[in-house]
Amino acid sequence: MEKGRNGQNHRKSARSQAAFTLNYSIEKPFELRISLGLPDETGALMQDLSDLGAAIITSYDIPPGTLLRIKFNLMNLRLFGEKRLRRMELIAEVMSNSVMPDESHRIGIRFDKISEEDKAAIRDFVERDKK
Description:
The structure is a single chain. The chain has two helices and seven strands. With 131 residues, it is of the alpha+beta class. The protein has one domain: predicted glycosyltransferase like domains (Thrombin, subunit H, Beta Barrel), CATH 2.40.10. A hairpin with a 5-residue loop joins strand 6 and strand 7.
């Protein structure tokens, strides 16, 4: 978890490092998708995850306030059977955008539309990862 200037955790929810590939598309504003020349779905790498949001790495400069439709498979290797893999599809708002040394962008997103079941699956993934 990130810490603020005074060393205190400023996150509302625990995060776990993740290395999931995901697909996203711009939900709003649609004009941004056109101006960036994005296809219907674009691939990216998830860097960390919590039940409230995530950080993703993309090659596109997506400004804060943009709404994204995110799709990914949450794989929890500590579970078995049908609970091991869960398909997630949700809406998230871009909260931050930082340019990385390789010119890619680290995008901080907050989940806006996510089911309680998906939130619970992510919390379980994060909690089990901390053990």
